[in-house]
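TA notes, week 10

Several of you asked for a full example with nothing omitted. So below is the full record: structure tokens for the whole chain, then the designed sequence directly under it. When grading your own attempts, check the secondary structure regions first.
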């Protein structure tokens, strides 16, 4: 029929380390066309929805926050193109794919008030609308009303995140302590923080310009008169001072941006919580590891969202990330009795070396250990954003306390047992691969390639990568999508009646999410 609505699309977004370097749409990864998970999900989807026939959404899957943010902007462009075509859609993300989805929704929310961040999407979104020789400024002015309508994402019907650890990076303290989240004056509430940032940012700009002007004028006049090196130092100091002011201004901009996006996170959750389904098991390895890697015993999120003038001040020290790595100098063999004959020169050298070893192991080794430990923690977190700290890692977009279960209890236990069984079966096969690698003297990189070539099902031993192999997980996703279709299909009630336990759990979960949101908004007004 002419007025028949097209099928609603279900867009899949994979997580970390699950990307395809060659950007192939077909493959055996869960999100690729033709995989077992793809086929099973196709069967679980309600009538009137379908997985894409065309190009799928790709991103690198690198464990870096900057890559996830870049991927979220690419996803937003992908969604805005669907919006322009009038296509309705549902989003399903696994692991950090859920983070990519949520960051895209946050960017769309921020664009409604901060239009400057929309710069990366103008080219891809308007490439077919630009008239010949039309200036970009004119094009943007002409397309802005449409863009502001599109970023509301009216075609978004539902969001499902599976095993997603939502990471919250906040600014660390720098030269001005209130910039950092551990400052007693830092708050995620509307009001004072951004105003102080704007005031100090203006002062920083003034410092940059005056330092550069003073240094530039002084240096030019100096070069015209003399080459005396001692007179040059004041002018070089002016440029260094300008660099210092510039770095502080960048930190303020970062704190401003993160605070602004944090408010958008809350706004997106308030707007989309009734369409969001978060599925996760309490023993999910990725979520537990990242919670361990985040700030230990972080502040209550409600407290952090309260204006600092309305709460009791608390101090949060910098997290100590010291793995006690063996960065030390060991004793020489000449210091071990019975191995090397002692000589007068040897004794003198042993005394000198012993003093140096003591100084190194006491003063140099521990700082290196802490620095390397911090780098390792940031690598696990995927934190490559300058001057930030991972404060929260939560299976919910809002890191609230005492969250309701992310799966029915029996389903979570079944997933856990299945992962344990696969790990037990994998043991002998994995030992064979390790033995071959040892005999062949393979390097670490060669060993990784050999594991891939052997097609050893390592992923099956992890609960985190086993969600899409369970029919009840797929059933929950299908029922959730069906509930939020623009026009639910006939037979939907019969489909729900066929899975009374899953339907009842979805009903209870929706009530829990709404109750938590209402309680949060009561304690933290918009």
């Amino acid at each position: 029929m002419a007025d028949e609505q097209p099928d609603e699309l279900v867009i899949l977004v994979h997580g970390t380390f699950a990307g395809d370097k060659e950007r192939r749409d077909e493959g055996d990864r869960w999100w690729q066309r033709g995989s077992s998970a793809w086929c099973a999900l196709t069967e679980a989807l309600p009538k009137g929805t379908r997985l894409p026939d065309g190009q799928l959404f790709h991103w690198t899957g690198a464990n870096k926050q900057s890559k996830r943010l870049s991927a979220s902007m690419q996803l937003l462009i992908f969604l805005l193109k669907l919006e322009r075509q009038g296509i309705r859609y549902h989003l399903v993300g696994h692991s950090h794919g859920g983070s990519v989805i949520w960051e895209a929704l946050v960017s769309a929310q921020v664009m409604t008030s901060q239009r400057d961040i929309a710069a990366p999407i103008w080219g891809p979104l308007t490439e077919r609308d630009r008239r010949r020789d039309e200036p970009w400024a004119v094009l943007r002015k002409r397309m802005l009303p449409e863009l502001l309508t599109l970023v509301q994402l009216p075609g978004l019907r539902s969001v499902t995140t599976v095993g997603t650890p939502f990471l919250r990076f906040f600014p660390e303290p720098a030269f001005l302590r209130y910039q950092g989240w551990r400052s007693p004056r830092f708050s995620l509430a509307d009001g004072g923080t951004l105003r102080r940032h704007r005031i100090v940012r203006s002062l920083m700009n003034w410092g940059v310009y005056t330092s550069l002007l003073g240094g530039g004028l002084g240096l030019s006049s100096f070069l015209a008169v003399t080459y005396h090196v001692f007179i040059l130092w004041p002018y070089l100091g002016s440029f260094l001072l300008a660099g210092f002011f510039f770095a502080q201004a960048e930190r303020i901009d970062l704190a401003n941006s993160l605070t602004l996006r944090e408010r958008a996170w809350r706004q997106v959750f308030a707007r989309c919580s009734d369409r969001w389904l978060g599925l996760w098991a309490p023993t999910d390895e990725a979520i537990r590891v990242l919670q361990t890697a985040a700030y230990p015993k972080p502040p209550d999120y409600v407290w952090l969202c309260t204006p600092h003038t309305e709460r009791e001040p608390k101090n949060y020290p910098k997290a100590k990330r010291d793995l006690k790595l063996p960065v030390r100098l060991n004793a020489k063999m000449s210091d071990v009795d019975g191995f090397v004959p002692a000589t007068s020169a040897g004794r003198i050298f042993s005394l000198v070396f012993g003093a140096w070893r003591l100084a190194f192991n006491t003063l140099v080794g521990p700082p290196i250990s802490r620095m390397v430990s911090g780098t390792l923690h940031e690598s696990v977190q995927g934190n490559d954003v300058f001057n930030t700290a991972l404060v929260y890692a939560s299976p919910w977009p809002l890191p609230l306390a005492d969250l309701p279960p992310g799966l029915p209890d029996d389903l979570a236990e079944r997933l856990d047992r299945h992962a344990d069984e696969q790990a037990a079966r994998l043991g002998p096969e994995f030992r064979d691969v390790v033995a071959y690698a040892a005999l062949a003297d393979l390097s670490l990189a060669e060993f990784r390639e050999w594991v891939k070539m052997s097609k050893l099902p390592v992923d099956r031993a992890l609960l985190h990568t086993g969600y899409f192999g369970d029919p009840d997980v797929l059933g929950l996703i299908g029922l959730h999508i069906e509930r939020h279709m623009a026009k639910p299909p006939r037979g939907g009630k019969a489909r729900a009646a066929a899975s009374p336990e899953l339907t009842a759990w979805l009903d209870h979960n929706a009530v829990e999410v709404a109750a938590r949101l209402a309680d949060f908004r009561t304690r933290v007004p918009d």
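The two ends are 45 Å apart (CA to CA). Use that as a sanity check on your answer.
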